[in-house]
């Protein structure tokens, strides 16, 4: 008598029910969701875009997140942080965000690491140990350079995403043209290309940038896993978020 083949998925039955729509929405849905589940992603900087992106990564099913930030939640930052509230004022942003995310799917196995600092040449090996991708929303030249140097050494992709006022910046640092990409990213820093209103980011803009970033990262990891040739063409996304919204 033949034994019934057991389900060898890395996803539990609860996780398969939780992400049922995502699994059914792609020809290789279960396999792709398993990849997402096993991918360790670090997100640097928990500003408005960073907080939103962290929540979207979590909702998408990335079950191994490293959150890195050296800032506290304060009253001035709350308008841009749609997932944090008054009770979080005074907490480190990474601790406050960890507490929020850990309380959502309490019956699903997840891993979180938090570091109340920013990347530097001295600590990147510790911060990003085992990571397959990094999302940088911090917008600090020194930390970004440290992240890009680490990504070059380990050959992992970096998504860079910022938003201020009504403008946004999204770059995919991967593929064969990293030197060109680095120059363009540094040029954007120097020219302050995405900034118009410096007071705070509006929630819908953060959501748009976060959604685009998570979508790009998910597809990029899938392309890399399957060694698809599109990887070398999937190097750079840059422009006003308003144009991505169809305005």
Protein architecture, described:
- The chain is an alpha/beta fold and about 250 residues long.
- The protein has a single domain, classed as NAD(P)-binding Rossmann-like Domain (Rossmann fold).
- It is built from ten helices and six strands.
- A six-stranded mixed β-sheet has the order 3-2-1-4-5-6, with helices on both faces.
- The longest helix is centred in the last third of the chain and has 23 residues, at about 205-225.
- The chain is globular and about 50 Å long.
What form results from the Cα inertia axes? globular
Tally of extended strands? Answer: 6
| Main sheet specs | 6 strands, mixed
**Proportion of strand residues:** 5-15%
How many domains is the backbone divided into? 1
Helix content: 40-55%
CATH superfamily: NAD(P)-binding Rossmann-like Domain
Secondary structure layout plus pairing:
Blueprint: H1 13-18, H2 20-24, H3 29-38, E1 40-44, H4 48-60, E2 64-68, H5 93-102, E3 111-115, H6 124-127, E4 133-136, H7 141-154, E5 158-164, E6 167-173, H8 178-191, H9 203-225, H10 241-244
Helix pairs in contact: 4-9
